Structures are given as structure tokens and as C-alpha cells.
Q: What sequence folds into this?
């Protein structure tokens, strides 16, 4: 049975989605986000540094709750857990992955983009789903349309969300948090401009769910 993900979404209205190229950026980046009030951090497995970045944040930034994103293979779960990940996010969730994730030792936000996918995940006991890619898959209209038929489910939309639309997403009753990369712009991270990351995080952390 999947674990309850509500303690993770309760940490902040926005979950930064971090794709870390240089492992040495991981700790200052995580500290900058936490300083701005964003504590749940998703580190994707899209780069070679992903697992090492999770390990570094788990070890050196005690106020962060680091999770693993872009989980697309069953072995990612054990590797990320061993590295210190405290939650899991997948971009999409085929049945073989969903069954594996249902037994994960940490909470999971499995990805979905259709009503059928959401129903399959609900049947396995998942309660908060990542809606991805949110803007490309129907955005707020999709979320409003599924609120009645999928009344038991809550969503964390991600993909195309930024300062322009985050507040409107968060105002929807079936949205418990949003995810996005906008709080950690690649150019700011590359330039070591972590003060900008903290400023963006303050703004994001002040949004109301
Ligand atoms: C993700 O994996 O959740 C997305 O790549 C984040 O989408 P964004 O870059 O549009 O915020």
C-alpha cells in the first residue's frame, strides 16, 4: 500500500524541480531554496549527478526534504532511497512501474496525464498524483473537469508552471501543490547566483494553497 504523501505537500506550496548538472551546485542550491521557504526538493535523475546530488543534499542540508524525480525504472527506487531520497516522483506511470512504486518505502507522486491513468493509480491506493505535463495536457481546464469524477484524488501539476500561473493552479480545490523548475533558473545556478534562487523561493513559498 502506498505511503501517505500529505506530509510532503504540507511543507510548501511549490516543489522545485531540480536538474543538477554539477554535483557541487547541489548543496548551495538546496540551501538557497530552503532559505526561501521551499523545503521539499525534487532532484531529477536526468543528469549523471542526480543521485550524488540527492546524497549531498540529504547529508548536508538537514532542513531540506529531498526527493527523487524522473523515476522511470524500477531500480531507481532503491538507488534513490539509499542515496537519502524521502519521496519519489515519476513523469508517467506504466503498470509495471506503478506496482513497484506502490511498495516503495517512501511516499510517491506518480505521474499521470489522463483520466484512465489517474483511475489506475487510484485503484493501487495512490492519493496525490503528479499531473504532467500539466500545461500541455489540458492545464487548469483538465483539473477542473476531473474534480467531480475523480473526487478522491488530489494533484500536483507540473510542467509549464511558473510565476504567471502558479497561484491560479493552487487556487483549484484538487491541487495540493505545484512543481516547477522556475524557482531555480539554469542561468542563475550556472552563475552561482543563489540569492536570486532564494528571492524566487520567497515569492513561491508565499503562494496560498
Ligand atoms: C518536470 O519534470 O516536472 C518538469 O520538467 C518541470 O517542468 P517545468 O520545467 O516546465 O517547470
A:
Amino acid at each position: 500500500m502506498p505511503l501517505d504523501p500529505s506530509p510532503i505537500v504540507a511543507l510548501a506550496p511549490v516543489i522545485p524541480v531540480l536538474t543538477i548538472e554539477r554535483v557541487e551546485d547541489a548543496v548551495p542550491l538546496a540551501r538557497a531554496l530552503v532559505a526561501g521557504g521551499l523545503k521539499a526538493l525534487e532532484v531529477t535523475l536526468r543528469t549523471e549527478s542526480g543521485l550524488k546530488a540527492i546524497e549531498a543534499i540529504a547529508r548536508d542540508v538537514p532542513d531540506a526534504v529531498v526527493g527523487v524525480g524522473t523515476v522511470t525504472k524500477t531500480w531507481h527506487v532503491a538507488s534513490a532511497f539509499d542515496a537519502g531520497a524521502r519521496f519519489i516522483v515519476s513523469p508517467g506511470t506504466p503498470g509495471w512501474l506503478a506496482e513497484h512504486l506502490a511498495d516503495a518505502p517512501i511516499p510517491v507522486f506518480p505521474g499521470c496525464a489522463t483520466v484512465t491513468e489517474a483511475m489506475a493509480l487510484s485503484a493501487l491506493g495512490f492519493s496525490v498524483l503528479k499531473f504532467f505535463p500539466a500545461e500541455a495536457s489540458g492545464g487548469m481546464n483538465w483539473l477542473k473537469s476531473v474534480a467531480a469524477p475523480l473526487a478522491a484524488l488530489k494533484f500536483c501539476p507540473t510542467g509549464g508552471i511558473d510565476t504567471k500561473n502558479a497561484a491560479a493552479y493552487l487556487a483549484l480545490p484538487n491541487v495540493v501543490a505545484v512543481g516547477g523548475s522556475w524557482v531555480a533558473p539554469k542561468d542563475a545556478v550556472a552563475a552561482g547566483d543563489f540569492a536570486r534562487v532564494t528571492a524566487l523561493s520567497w515569492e513561491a513559498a508565499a503562494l496560498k494553497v
